[in-house]
Q: What sequence folds into this?
């Protein structure tokens, strides 16, 4: 941190390797969801809900895999998720916006020279959620849209119809 930090660039360290890795991968998936919401004109409340519930999903998977909850409350969780889910210039959010506006994934990817990590990690995140028997409906919805041809409007309806319950992060209580 001291070697690369400066008065204009603040660095932090963490020994929670699992948490940092998951936060870095999951924020991209949720950034795509936020972009779809913006592209579909679902409003700021919808995007805010995706960020908050995305953080809960991120934390839930992290706890199940041995990460620490406080990692997700820092830059590797809420920090990156907030940026990725609120910045239309973010690669993943901009891809989601294009999807939400009705463009096809192959067409979007064909014209880009950058990597949208969420496209590649959504399937793995869905598999991890299944293998740990975790409720991660937003991550599953993004995987359905990206990798299984799911209709966006039907997927949004599926998310909104998801059973309501107590707001908890713990894998055992989800």
A:
């Amino acid at each position: 941190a001291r070697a690369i930090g400066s008065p204009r660039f603040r660095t932090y360290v963490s020994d929670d390797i699992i948490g940092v890795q998951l936060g870095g991968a999951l924020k991209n998936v949720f950034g795509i969801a936020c972009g779809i919401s913006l592209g579909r004109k679902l409003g700021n409340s919808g995007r805010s809900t995706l960020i908050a519930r995305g953080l809960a999903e991120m934390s839930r998977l992290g706890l199940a895999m041995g990460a620490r909850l406080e990692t997700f409350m820092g830059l590797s969780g809420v920090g990156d998720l907030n940026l990725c889910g609120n910045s239309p210039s973010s690669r993943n959010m901009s891809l989601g916006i294009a999807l939400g506006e009705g463009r096809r994934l192959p067409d979007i990817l064909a014209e880009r020279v950058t990597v949208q990590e969420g496209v590649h990690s959504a399937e793995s995140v869905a598999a991890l959620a299944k293998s740990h028997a975790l409720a991660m409906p937003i991550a599953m919805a993004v995987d359905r849209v990206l990798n299984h041809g799911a209709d966006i409007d039907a997927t949004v309806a599926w998310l909104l119809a998801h059973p309501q319950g107590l707001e908890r992060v713990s894998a055992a209580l989800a």
Q: What stands out?
A: The chain has a mean pLDDT of 92. The CA atoms of residues 27 and 81 lie 5 Å apart. The first helix runs from residue 17 to 39. The chain is about 65% helix and 0% strand.
